[in-house]
């Protein structure tokens, strides 16, 4: 469900997605978005009225320092970067390679992000990075997989970001006069369904799937069950 948070183009509640056993993800529990730095004052008010109890910021220290959100540093916001400050730049040529590099390098940080969703006792958890597509997409995909949402539904939810952010990409391309840079911009700023499919295949082939990957990152059986209860009831 798309959310009307003025200033944000990609804020949506994943509630209503079906699970393989015939249930659905609860509404008002898990929200995905681009960075809340883009919120207008009316958007900030909308967030405060929407029952949000935790804002999980996946961005790195430099990103947050450069572009804090209206909630940065407040009790509502929790920082959970997906890379350690000591990690080098990924230097990967494609978005799939960059994402799998992050997953392989820091499974404990991805597990901590998913655990933060499970640990919030009430209200909605907002997960965001910068564009709300790749880092957010991976964390949300991991959480939805544990909750039992079929892969095709997870991929379809990820691909919805394409529609939401395509005007933003067009604006960025139009603002860059050096067209030689456009292919790289498209590679790392577009949201293609096949990207998430490839990332999920990587988790299957290297770890045995999302649940095995999160266990590898340190999540326990009890924590995984807590996440399922949180998302499905």
How many distinct folded domains?
1
Low-confidence stretches: none
Mean pLDDT figure:
92
Estimate the global geometry from the Cα principal axes: globular
Give a brief description.
Helices cover 51% and strands 9% of the residues. With 233 residues, the protein is α/β, with parallel strands linked by helices.
List keywords for this structure.
alpha/beta; five-stranded mixed sheet; globular
Question: Topology, pairings included?
Answer:
Elements: E1 12-13, E2 30-33, H1 41-49, E3 52-57, H2 61-66, E4 77-79, H3 95-105, H4 107-119, E5 124-128, H5 135-147, H6 151-175, H7 182-189, H8 193-207, H9 210-216, H10 221-232
Parallel strand pairs: 2-5, 3-4, 3-5
Antiparallel strand pairs: 1-2
Helix pairs in contact: 3-8, 4-5, 4-9, 4-10, 5-6, 5-10, 6-8, 8-9
Notes on the structure:
The chain has ten helices and five strands; from the N terminus they run ββαβαβααβαααααα. A five-stranded mixed β-sheet has the order 1-2-5-3-4, with helices on both faces. Helix 5 crosses helix 10 and helix 8 packs across helix 9. The longest helix has 25 residues. The mean pLDDT is 92.
């Amino acid at each position: 469900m798309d959310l009307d948070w003025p200033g944000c183009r990609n804020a949506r509640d994943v509630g209503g997605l079906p699970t393989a056993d015939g249930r659905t993800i609860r509404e008002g529990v898990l929200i995905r978005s681009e960075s809340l730095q883009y919120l207008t004052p009316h958007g900030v008010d909308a967030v405060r009225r929407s029952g949000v109890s935790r804002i999980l910021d996946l961005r790195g220290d430099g990103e947050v320092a450069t572009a804090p959100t209206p909630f940065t540093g407040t009790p509502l916001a929790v920082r959970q970067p997906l890379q350690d400050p000591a990690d080098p730049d990924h230097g990967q040529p494609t978005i799939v390679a960059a994402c799998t590099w992050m997953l392989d390098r820091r499974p404990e940080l991805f597990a901590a992000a998913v655990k933060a969703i499970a640990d919030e006792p009430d209200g909605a958890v907002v997960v965001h990075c910068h564009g709300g597509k790749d880092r957010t997409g991976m964390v949300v995909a991991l959480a939805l997989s544990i909750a039992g949402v079929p892969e095709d539904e997870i991929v379809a939810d990820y691909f919805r970001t394409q529609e939401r952010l395509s005007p933003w990409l067009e604006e960025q391309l139009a603002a860059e006069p050096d067209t030689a840079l456009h292919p790289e911009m498209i590679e790392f700023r577009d949201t293609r369904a096949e990207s998430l499919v490839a990332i999920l295949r990587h988790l299957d082939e290297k770890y045995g799937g999302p649940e095995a990957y999160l266990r590898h990152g340190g999540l326990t059986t009890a924590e995984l069950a807590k996440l399922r209860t949180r998302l499905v009831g």
